[in-house]
Write a structure and sequence with these properties.
Number of strands: 0
Largest sheet: none
Number of helices: 19
Strand content: under 5%
Helix content: over 70%
Distance between the termini: 30 Å
Radius of gyration: 22 Å
């Protein structure tokens, strides 16, 4: 019963997605604690620190996670063990080099970074201490890239869950006793546990040790770093735009508004976004391994997009219905102001799911220039729309900007991939889209136009329809009931 390729997609998504749900629960505890103890100001400080570190990381990590996965995935396809082990050795050297580079830059320019980010030198010592996290995180990225390339979803899931749970044990008492002064220890402890578990589980992949000389290291590194550098530039643009938007909101509005903006997108990225993360860890290496065969590649993208919408649509409808409840549960009444912004961000997230599935083609095919220009224009859209939107409409304007950006982005990636690779949407995908998109649009309109009573009443009817449609389609394609039983019998933590 069902298409085996659909089963593989949904099975891998379910295994990592199930663990991500547990990570979300840990995140809920963490976010609630931060919201109660530190408030929106604490969220603002954490958001600006995180944006600054992510910006520096994007400048110095050369996109190694994606480029490493892309290179290793193609090697695992041809099963060249000697080449694989040599490449892994080189990747491990590169993550140390790039991690040290990021740490050194952060330490040396800590005063300038503090001045640029917060408008004063008060946080210089914060950045000096946080420089160590850039090295720790980069080494972790190298370990996780190995797990992802070999599609060891179980091991990657274990590493993610244990790293988050272990750090939580220390985070709660630190914030409780030290409040804002505990932010730096929390950053460092989180990085340490992430490194510890990523290293431990990556060792379970048995690789023959190879001696790789300097010349060979430089030759292979050149290819990996060149491809990674293009990715890094694109990532840098995204991080820079996010950073500029937060700084703009802080100057036009207040640091509390930055905290609200940060909290809002944290909700989407951490909770709804877990679906993207769960799928990407299996999708990208799988797509990379078939990227040279356009018909198979097109089929792979369509199937991924179909599964994505069937899973995501009920989640978005549920999230919109209980938006206020979720905000009060995870944060506090102080954060209810972001409700309307999130309705629009959910619309943008639906469009992102479709365009995101296509955009991976540029990476898997190493189409560097197209990937770079595609991301450049998208970031320009978002920066322009967000600045304009916030200036005239506040946070709801940022929600509009997000939705508009992914409308343009979807049109853009579809047209490019159609002309370059002959990409097209399958008739089955169009069928799913005809049912899914109206459900999301309708629930958003209800949320804006009616009070909570009617939102819950009409929303639950839309949710039941969405769940029934997704369940029936997945049952037809993969035999969902049998697959669920198989997943439940899977012992994620077996040796």
């Amino acid at each position: 019963m069902g298409d085996n390729s659909y089963k593989k997609i949904l099975y891998a998504t379910s295994i990592f997605g199930g663990v991500q749900v547990l990570v979300v629960i840990i995140g809920i505890i963490k976010s609630k604690f931060i919201a109660v103890i530190l408030g929106s100001i604490g969220f603002g400080i954490i958001g600006l620190l995180q944006s600054s570190l992510t910006l520096i990381t994007s400048l110095t990590n050369f996109g190694l996670r994606i480029s490493s996965v892309q290179f290793l995935s193609k090697l695992t396809k041809i099963e060249d063990e000697k080449k694989i082990s040599e490449t892994i050795t080189i990747i491990k050297r590169l993550v140390w080099f790039t991690g040290l580079l990021g740490a050194l830059i952060t330490w040396i320019f800590s005063s300038y970074i503090s001045e640029l980010t917060f408008g004063n030198l008060k946080y210089s010592i914060f950045f000096k201490w946080l420089s160590v996290t850039l090295l720790l995180n980069q080494i972790s990225i190298g370990q996780n890239a190995i797990l992802q390339s070999f599609r060891k979803i179980n091991l990657l899931a274990k590493s993610t869950l244990l790293g988050n749970f272990s750090s939580l044990i220390f985070i709660i008492p630190i914030y409780y006793f030290y409040e804002i002064d505990g932010i730096i220890p929390v950053f460092i402890i989180t990085s340490l546990f992430t490194l510890l578990f990523s290293w431990y589980f990556s060792q379970k992949i048995k690789i023959q040790k190879q001696n790789v000389d300097l010349q060979q290291t430089l030759e292979v590194s050149k290819s990996i770093l060149y491809f990674g550098f293009i990715i890094s530039l694109s990532t840098l643009l995204t991080v820079l735009v996010t950073f500029l938007i937060r700084v703009f909101i802080g100057k036009i509005g207040s640091i509390e508004q930055v905290g609200l903006y940060t909290a809002g997108f944290a909700l989407i990225n951490s909770y709804v976004g877990l679906i993207f993360k769960a799928i990407s860890y299996d999708y990208f290496p799988r797509l990379s391994s078939v990227s040279n065969d356009n018909p198979i590649m097109i089929n792979t993208v369509n199937k991924q997009a179909e599964i994505m919408l069937l899973i995501l649509t009920p989640v978005l409808v549920l999230f919109i219905i209980f938006n206020k409840v979720i905000i009060l549960l995870l944060y506090s009444i102080e954060f209810v102001e972001i409700t309307n912004m999130l309705y629009l961000v959910c619309c943008g997230t639906f469009l992102k799911a479709i365009s995101w599935s296509i955009s991976f083609v540029f990476l898997s095919k190493e189409d560097k220039k197209i990937y770079f220009w595609n991301e450049l224009f998208t970031n320009i859209y978002f920066l322009f729309f967000s600045v304009f939107g916030y200036y005239y409409f506040g946070l709801i304007g940022v929600g509009c900007a997000y939705m508009l950006t992914y409308t343009f982005y979807l049109i853009q990636v579809y047209q490019i991939s159609k002309k370059r690779y002959g990409f097209f949407f399958s008739s089955y995908f169009i069928r799913i889209l005809k049912y899914s998109f109206p459900s999301v649009i309708l629930i958003v309109l209800v949320a804006f136009c009616f009070n909570d009573f009617w939102l819950y009443l009409i929303g639950l009817m839309i949710l039941i329809f969405s769940l029934k449609f997704s369940f029936n389609e997945l049952e037809d394609k993969v035999g969902l009931k049998n697959l669920i039983n198989s997943i439940l019998k899977t012992k994620i933590f077996k040796k």
